[in-house]
Predict the structure.
Amino acid sequence: MSEQNSIRDDFTLIKKGYTYFDNAATSLTPVSVIQRISDYYNCHNGNVSRGAHQLTRNASLYYQDARQKTARFIDAKEDEIIFCRNATEAINLLAQGIDWKAGDNIVTTLVEHHSNYVPWLRVRDRHQVELRIAQPNREGVFDLGDFKKAISDRTKLVTTGQVSNVLGTVNPVREIADLAHNKGAWLLVDAAQSLPHLPIDVDDLGCDFLAGSGHKMLGPTGIGFLFIKKELQYSIQPLAIGGGTIHDVARDRYDLLNSIERFEGGTPHIAGALGLAAAIDYIEKIGWDFICKKDTQLVANLEEGLKKRDYVTIYGPVENSKRVSLVSFNIENCRPHRVASLLDEMGKIMVRSGHHCALPLTKYVLNATAGTVRASLYFYNLSDEIEHFFDIIDFIHTNS
Ligand SMILES: Cc1ncc(COP(=O)(O)O)c(C=O)c1O
């Protein structure tokens, strides 16, 4: 059996005949992740850090191990990882937790997912903070000059996605980090789309904060994390305090813990954290060489095939594109949701259609108000699946 076939056997939905091209929305879940979650409930179901019996002790050890693995995965330290529900919650934690002063400014971009855009609009409205928005060219590519112009001595935070969920473009995070730090600002990286596809080292990226979601990197839903540099932890207020966050409580005061748990109020998603650790084990077993090679090869096949079809409009860079894993496009005379429904009906092929939670980008940069179709791939996809996809979009075009 080839390596690719044995990998595909790890994913039940692939064995059920689905062609899954919606990985940027959520990835498939390998059986080892599902097994780890059910093992927790079947064998170690205790709360964490809250008692002395063996189930709670074991659950605490597994939870701690999950934090260590997540930290190691991005070359951070164990006490720099806050588990939360998803990338959206991680970004909101930061937006709510920074001590904003009137007159501060935040720099974000027009390419962001709503989860890294809307929270900053709210901060602007609540705290009289200015929001500055770096705009890319029509292909969604940035000129560093735009960031240089936007970042000033009053910039508190610069934030950007590493990989665009609509265009698959990779933003120059390291260079943006240098520009931010030169002005004394912090950098938050939204890594929801990069974590499944690129090895990440937070020191190399130069970021102060990084947000990620487990379900986009083979893990379960309901678990994500915020990396927060150790030395900045006391500058940020937790989102929720109460059980699990407390060093001491008296009648009229409380002291929060000095550890990372101060940010994780209430019982955490223990099974989710264990599932995320199993997903990281799986990615590490497959290896970045294999993942990056497959990603590059598959997205090149997809892009080349789409470019050959004159009835297709591709969004994002067309010449020498270095897309990560996905292509957004439209078919002449056929609306995106119709294309997605037909791909499902005719070929059991799952793609995303619409604005991909990135309305500022689709409205003001791509001029695609009805949205686009997005095919997003991962290492378990096959070139044959892409060929089948082309046959169906040819048929859709001919008959629309
Ligand atoms: C770039 C980017 N950021 C943030 C998010 C939000 O992720 P979640 O819904 O898991 O919080 C997504 C989800 O698609 C995304 O693509």
Q: What stands out?
A: The first helix runs from residue 3 to 8. The domain at 3-21+287-398 is CATH 3.90.1150.10 (Aspartate Aminotransferase, domain 1).
